[in-house]
Amino acid sequence: MTYRYRLAAVFLMGFFVDCINIFMPAIALPTIAAEFRVGVSAVAWVANAYMLGLTLAIPVSTWLAGRWGARRLMAGSMLAFALAVWACGLAGTFGQLVGWRFVQGMAGGLMIPVGQAAAFNLFQGPERARISTLVMAVALIAPALSPWLGGLIVDHGSWRWIFHSNIPLALAAAALAWGWVRDTPSERPPRPDLKGLALISIALASLLTGMSLYGAGQDMTLAWLCLAAGVASAFAYVLHYRRSTHAIVELKLLGSPRLRLSVAIYHAIPGVFTGVNLLNIFYLQDVLGMSARATGMLMIVYACGAFVAMMAGGRLYNRAGMRPLFLASMALHSLGVAALAGVTAATDTWLLAAAYGLMGLGGGMGANTAQTTALLDFDGRQTHQASVIWNINRQMAFSVGAAFFLMIFNSLATHLDASRAYHLTFVIASLTGLLPALQLGFFNTGKHRHAGHSH
């Protein structure tokens, strides 16, 4: 195996561990909520804390890699990850679980962007589609297997083993990083922009907290204050960025139309799906009485659809271009989300399978095309900077999608019965997922057809 594929293998293993820890705990959230006696909005912080940790760590990962070396950073982050999942499984209170999930997210956030940027720099031009396909293959295997395995663990054991089962994988990733990754000489990056990092973290934490409080109907004044603080912090970062020479997130890279569009697509497809899937888990288990294992098996259907779409999208990307692939992915995904509104009983298995199959087709094609498109305009140091933006956006899409649609559902549930509130939320989500189609009108299909650089 050549060095670039060894490096890609280390990154992909770390990425696999990251994906597992997004999807596997989700299947246990109803059980965790019941054990710790917290509501749906509160238990969502098991996921939100992980995403916040990732968001905090991702921007400083490149700086730390420059000081410590990629080898030490990637191996050390996976060791810290193993410690955090062990502690999550031992948590005695909901606060402890959320706190260790935050630490777990920080450990994962140090590994992913460094590994991705290093791997993508070794695969240039049209070869980016090849490594992107490998990334998306991992992104399919994890959600296909982890919810089903998580459902078995919840139904026949303890939800705590959902976290403990990650320890061998994290230790294996640490060992491979130590044995395979080289520390190549590079210019040491400047000291990280801690003020900018604080502003971004405050903005995301405030927005998620505000949406959670608003959706749960708890202290509306505090909810609006949190939302206002989030918007103000985001605006403050923009002002800070204009005065800074080494801002933590290089906003000028969003001048790339392909990166901007890919960011929007990730919110519209994986982001929307995260929120919809979380709500559907509670709907199927709490309202319709479906088992955790049966709920988790739906992700296998999703993954099969995504695999077919990913294979087709990988072959069609350089021929057809991103525009038709993005349009098809949004249409398929939104149709699948809308189909969930017709599920009224646990016996509606064919409709559930069709919904998850369609969402898988749209999700696989959309995420794979976005992953390929996002970093096409960059190389060298800019790839690292764009990777920071891309990975922060990826985590934000998951967190914001879950928080936003929980807010919509909880607001509707104050006026409607639970089933109707779930169904109407799914309809709203299906329409939301089509919004990036408006951006596609600005792309000339001939100009943006191929995967070459546009410097």
Describe the overall structure.
The protein has 455 residues and is mainly alpha-helical. The chain is 80% helix and 0% strand. The protein has helices spanning 3-27, 29-36, 40-43, 45-68, 70-90, 94-121, 127-156, 160-164, 167-180, 194-216, 220-243, 257-287, 292-320, 322-339, 349-374, 381-413, 418-432, 437-440.
Rg: 21 Å
For the sheet with most strands, the description reads: none
When the domains are counted, the total is 2
Tell me which CATH architecture of the largest domain applies here.
Up-down Bundle
Q: Can you tell me the CATH topology of the largest domain?
A: Growth Hormone, Chain: A
Shape: globular
Helix content: over 70%
Name the CATH superfamily classification of the largest domain: MFS general substrate transporter like domains
Kindly name the structural category.
mainly alpha
- Count of discrete alpha- or pi-helical segments spanning 4 or more residues: 18
Mean pLDDT: 85
Spans of 5+ residues with little confidence (pLDDT < 50)?
445-455
Strand percent estimate: under 5%
Q: What is the number of E strands? A: 0
Topology at a glance:
Elements: H1 3-27, H2 29-36, H3 40-43, H4 45-68, H5 70-90, H6 94-121, H7 127-156, H8 160-164, H9 167-180, H10 194-216, H11 220-243, H12 257-287, H13 292-320, H14 322-339, H15 349-374, H16 381-413, H17 418-432, H18 437-440
Helix pairs in contact: 1-6, 1-7, 1-9, 4-5, 4-6, 4-10, 4-16, 5-6, 5-9, 6-16, 7-13, 7-15, 10-11, 10-16, 12-14, 12-15, 12-16, 12-17, 13-14, 13-15, 14-15, 14-17, 16-17
What are the salient characteristics of this protein?
455 residues; globular; Growth Hormone, Chain: A; mainly alpha; 2 domains; 80% helix; disordered C terminus
